[in-house]
Amino acid sequence: MPITDFLERNARLYPGEIALTEISPQYEPEHQLTWHEYNLIEAAEGEEYRREMTWRSFEEDANRFANLLFTRGIRRGDRVAILLMNCLEWLPIYFGILKTGALAVPMNYRYSAEEIRYCANLADCSMMIFGPEFISRVSEVKDEIPLIHNWFFVGKRSDTPAYADHYASMIHHCSPVPPPVEIADTDDAAIYFSSGTTGFPKAILHSHAALVSSCQTEQAHHGQSHSDVFLCIPPLYHTGAKMHWFGSLLSGSRAVLLRGVKPEWIIECASREKATIVWLLVPWAQDILDAIDRGDIDLSHYRLDNWRLMHIGAQPVPPSLIRRWKSVFPHHQYDTNYGLSESIGPGCVHLGVENIDHVGAIGKAGFLWQTRIVDEHFCDVPRGEVGELAVCGPGVMRCYYKNPEATAEVMRGEWLLTGDMAREDEDGFIYLVDRKKDVIITGGENLYPVQIEDFLRAHEKVKDAAVIGLPHPRLGEIAAAIIEVKDGMTLTEAEIEQFCLGMPRYKRPRKIIFADIPRNPTGKIEKPKLREIYCGVRLVEAETTK
User: Fold this and answer.
1) Do 121 and 206 have their domain in common?
2) Residue 30 has what pLDDT?
3) Is residue 324 domain-resident?
4) Continuous H helices in 314-417
5) Domain final residue, candidates 217, 233, 248
6) Which residues contact 180 (CB under 8 A, 6 or more apart)?
7) Is the pLDDT at 362 greater than 80, yes or no?
């Protein structure tokens, strides 16, 4: 069955029950609200503090959008881009696209204008839905995306660009009846973006069967029941957040989309909404614990007895953090999941709440998955030795869209090479050792060194540049730029920081080091040597380098 069938089932079984709640804490009024006010309040700016959607409305809005897409010529196999911050409209739009037989193409909300252009053209998108945060970026490149002739804007009608149609106004006139489209498990469903060591995004093609398998894996791992409430904070464009939410879809349970990551907001939302499952990134968990230690959060002011599971993913999890968390929240179950977009997100490796004694491991093969640790010849290495982690399961991508060479590099029959080096202990638990690729994971987001290096080399005084990840106690890693200055020139950190304002904030190096760049005889940067030299550098300065 296609994944859209689960939404139709929930609308039939739980039509009046709440499926999605959106909380925008930045618009909360200053005075203490009664529960009735809390459910109805709208801020003076016209922004709603709290919005809700029933399963029936979810299904009907998805159908309305699907029928609207038909009027614009969208058909089976077309590709429709989604460029939105988390909001109540995100998932109905996603499912509306799927209901037409077209492919949903979620985009990273941190993409620059050039990255938006590149990815939309790479995926052959013929339509884009975007929010107010992206008006300037989309407007800058819209004429360079020749296949897109229809643009839909999600936001205030008065802010709608002249070249776009207002989403809410348009679907209001469309039928809420499901479109007459037969969708098979084998049909293509979505394209997600990843990137390799070159820094150029690759388009990852997944089927409806892969999406359904992620529902089953997530529900098997975390046991979502109809009474659960999932607090979703990470962005829905990412396979991580969406595929964890798929457990709620399978169980017909409520999810809360929190638009903000302040520790007080997370704890307040978990308390008010009676969340039972909360998925955090490492920095957010650390910020919550730090706020509790400082006294900024007094847990006695909140009702958190419903919260049963805290799980973390997207980056390596320090065991010390989990020990600290369990000391503050001893009744919480803890879990971590490993995955990648090529494996339809988290769950191909899974620790399990019963294995708290193996904190530090990413776990064992997840539900419906198999794992191997292999050498360069794709032969299993002896247990305890380091090799590359390979996974096999129903969520493995079909291919990198329009990139057979890259597909061949990572696929071995039905097995996917992850690019991560790992080892397996005597109990069968897998531990990550290092990444085969040079991707830097900072606060759960991937940074691609080549992109930053190319940008830095454009500076008139820079002879060469290399970017590596340095350990960081909160973010996991930070990007450090080693810069070789042209002969006879002087260059300061302030000049580099000013130059880097031309990059998205999350890509800017947190530490600048002026030194020679070692290269091997073939011209490649010797990054292992750089890591050996600089990973011992004190990181206190990094906190003041913005």
Assistant:
1) yes
2) 56
3) yes
4) 319-328, 404-410
5) 217
6) none
7) yes
